[in-house]
Amino acid sequence: MTRFRTRLRRGLASATATAALLTAACASTTADDPDSVRIGLLVSLSGTYATVGEDMQRGIRLYLDSHGGRLGGRRVDLVVGDEGDGPATAVPAAQKLLERDRVVALTGLVGGATVDKVQILTTERKVPLLGANARPAFTPVGGKPRDLAYTWHTSYNSDEPGIAIAEYVRSQVGDGAVYAIGPDYQGGWDELRGFTDTFTRLGGKLANPDGKTLFTPFPATQNFLPYLNMAAKTKPKAVYTFYAGAAAVAFVRQYAQSDLKDVPLYAAGFLTEGSVLTAQGSAATGIRNVLNYSPTLGNAANQDFVARWSARHAIQPTTFAMASYDAAAVLDRALSGVDGEVTGPKLNTAIGNVGRVVSPRGDWQFEPVEHRPVQRWYLREVKPDGPVLSNVLVQDLTTLPAS
Length: 403
Prior knowledge:
The chain has 12 helices and 16 strands. It is globular. It has 403 residues and is an alpha/beta fold. It folds into 2 domains: 36-156 and 299-371, Response regulator (Rossmann fold); 160-291 and 378-399, 3-Layer(aba) Sandwich (Rossmann fold). The strands form 3 sheets. Strands 7, 8, 9, 10, 11, 12, 15 and 16 form an 8-stranded mixed β-sheet that branches. Strands 2-3-1-4-5-6 form a 6-stranded mixed β-sheet, with helices on both faces.
């Protein structure tokens, strides 16, 4: 018994020492090493939007590698977590990044529902959330509007693509009606609401029998033919939609096989963005869509971005990669303005002082209240660009005003 107790005491002492070493290791890139910072990247590494998450990770790593692995002169330890298909996976991953890894900023986040939940955590801990994709209409907490002081996005509000293209679609269909269809989750609700609210306010009519968007199960189905053939019975002049990732591939392929195949299709640009366009092939030709970026933009920042990207990847750069690249650019400038140890509050203040960002999409800056980009939106069309299909710039659409 005495020998057992001795071994037990030694084991406990060893475990305590190991825990202390692990704790020190977690802190070594912050207070113990002022020349290094930990940044959390939370993106979909699995699930429906894994291709989106992959592009976002590629974008931030491209910026880091182009700048010697440093932001604001500090070495960066990029800690990656898996968002999966939404909050059930994302919230525990975010908690790990914030509590165990003790990141000084969190970026990435593919889905709006993820942002809605994770934003509560980052605000409580006074850690800047620098989202690089969907941004929802935040639900109130305890009946009170969200505190957005620590919430920033280099992407867009999720309703903005639909708002930006609605007037153009209205001009194309005249007195004809448009059928609205999208996925039944936060991102789909926001994306379709932006279009339908603006389109009907401008005098447009929806072909949907009840005047409301048809929402398809998410992520339960990628069999869209029954919904598409049902929509065809309303004889719409055009269709407007939002899908992304694997669902976008299935939707576009099946649209080309459905009774709607000769009806013009308009969309938020995620429908044909990145690797999904390669998978869609000729079925995507002619789709007109709206986004805040096109790889064919002629500004100098985009030419440099495309050249760096093309040296690494066979596909063209996407808005997902560009927004993550810009998130790194924002952190680069913000960290250069932080003296001494980097804390969440100090970094957040520095993000607010970044000012105009020179970007592949064109110059932009944060809107002062919502902390979203004030930026230009573009109409694009899927057509051949040399040997490959691309989202080719057709025209500028609008710059949505600040609040």
